[in-house]
Amino acid sequence: MLIDLMTSHSSTLLQHRPFIRYEAQYGIVICLTCNQGYQAGSIRRHLVEKHGIAYKVYHPVLQSFEQQYPLSLAQSWKSISLPVDRSVSIEGLRILPGYHCGKCGLKTTNDNTVKKHQKKCSRLNQVSLQCWNVTKDNRYWVVLSTPTALAESAFASHGLPSF
After folding, report:
1. Which of 150, 133, 131, 132 lies closest to 141, judged by CA?
2. In this predicted structure, which of 23-37, 41-55, 70-84 has the lowest mean pLDDT?
3. SS3 for 31?
4. What is the pLDDT, as a whole number, of residue 161?
């Protein structure tokens, strides 16, 4: 669900496009300007500190999320589940180049971690990754970010090799 926070008191930024998006399945709000996801407490701080949005502007919007959907906003990072690997990318979140280990499941965007990990496991593949928030919750999942990747996934489900 996209919400445009346009009001007579909102900043110029808010007057031109939707500003936040709610992923009801996960209880997370995505800031479409920063391309990061936030749980309940941190989205409030983020909107005020990063974008200067007043409580009276954002509070009714967040309240409507909680009233309209059976899942409320997640209260902690640990309570937020992740999409399954090889899912379609989530609108509004960054798509990051990274690596996935087919042997142990490691997912990372860090080249130093990859170098160290290659000594233990040899099944690292380059993939596209997403996470809710690169600084607060960098648990990654593998995404299919292009039409080509989606087509490859369809072939893989028919027994052809995949990563």
Report:
1. 131
2. 70-84
3. strand
4. 31
